[in-house]
Each structure stands twice: as C-alpha cells, then as structure tokens.
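in:
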C-alpha cells in the first residue's frame, strides 16, 4: 500500500513530465519524426503514424495520472513507455550509436547510459502507482507538503536533466555542433 500523499508526489510530476514531452514532440513534429527515425527501430513507413500517435499517448497518460480512479492504469502505461524509451536508447548504445539525439525535448542531447538509468528509475516510480492507496483523507498539512514537494521534485528533475545534458556534451568525441 502507498500513502496518498506519496502517490500524488509521484503522479503529479510524472503527469507534468509526460505533458511536457508531448508538447515538445507536437511543437516540432518534423524534428521529432527525425529523432524517432534516427533510433532505427521502426519501419520507415510507420514513422509518421508513430510520431503522431506517441505524443497523443503521452498526453493521455498525463491526464490519466491525475484522477485517483485511473492512476494505477496510467502508472502502468507510464512505466511501460519509460521502459520502451530506455530500451530504445540501450539498443542504440549497444550498437555504438551514442551520438544520436535522445529526443528528450529541448536542446539536442546524445544518448548515454545515464539516460537509460534515469528512465528505468522513473519507470520504477511510476510502477509504485500500482500499489493501492492507504485509506485516509488528505489533511491540510498534506496539501502544504504537496505544495512544497511538487516544485522540489520538478526542480530536482530539471537539475538532473541539465547535469546529464552537460555531462553528455562534455564527453570526449561529442560534436558540439549537434
């Protein structure tokens, strides 16, 4: 069982992450399609359909993470998506193709094992949403904790993303014009 406060501390930042990822992908569809194609995991004829459907699926996951009635299913979908992303990155790293853009949104970022581990860790957090919540109402103190913890989690996530991006850019052999 999981405390409902912890469930929200996991679900709300994950919803923000998936919504943000969907917006990035939809705002530059040609770039996202190229990033997806660079992974060389899908038949070329499916790239347009997958590049269109994936952001919509991510947006659906984001919205379904919000209500407690759909949170478990959305947590499962989020975990599976994150594991699929980690798997795609891992396959390409094993192939020796680290210099392709991860497609994580924003500034181009080459693949790295740290990104694979990050996605696996996020998938594990999403999987925690499958645990049934403890039967208790949220108190005012819980809401205050929520207001404090959500920005802290988002800030930590953003900082980790920048650390990983900068570490990848400083890696020997990385082309800085990427």
């Amino acid at each position: 069982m999981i405390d409902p406060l912890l469930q929200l501390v996991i679900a709300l930042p994950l919803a923000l992450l998936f919504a943000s990822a969907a917006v990035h992908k939809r705002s530059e569809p040609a770039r996202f399609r190229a990033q997806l194609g660079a992974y060389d995991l899908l038949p070329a004829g499916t790239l347009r359909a997958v590049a269109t459907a994936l952001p919509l699926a991510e947006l659906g996951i984001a919205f379904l993470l919000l209500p407690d009635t759909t949170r478990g299913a959305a947590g499962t979908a989020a975990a599976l998506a994150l594991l699929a992303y980690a798997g795609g990155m891992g396959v390409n790293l094993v192939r020796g193709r680290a210099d392709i853009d991860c497609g994580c949104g924003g500034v181009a970022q080459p693949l790295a094992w740290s990104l694979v581990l990050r996605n696996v860790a996020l998938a594990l957090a999403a999987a925690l949403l499958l645990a049934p919540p403890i039967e208790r109402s949220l108190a005012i103190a819980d809401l205050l904790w929520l207001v404090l913890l959500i920005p802290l989690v988002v800030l930590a996530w953003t900082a980790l993303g920048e650390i990983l991006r900068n570490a990848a850019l400083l890696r020997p052999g990385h082309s800085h014009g990427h």
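note: Residues 140-170 form the longest helix (31 residues).
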